[in-house]
Amino acid sequence: MGFWKKFKDSIRKHQFFGLAVRRLDLMAQRPSWEDIVVDAMVGLEAIYVGSSMGEVRYKVSLRASKFLGLEGFVEELGLKVGDLPKMLKEAYDIRSEIVHGGAATEKAGKFYQKYSMEVAVFLQWCLMESLVRLTKYLARIDKGLTRTHFSMAFC
Question: pLDDT at position 105, please?
Answer without folding.
Answer: 81
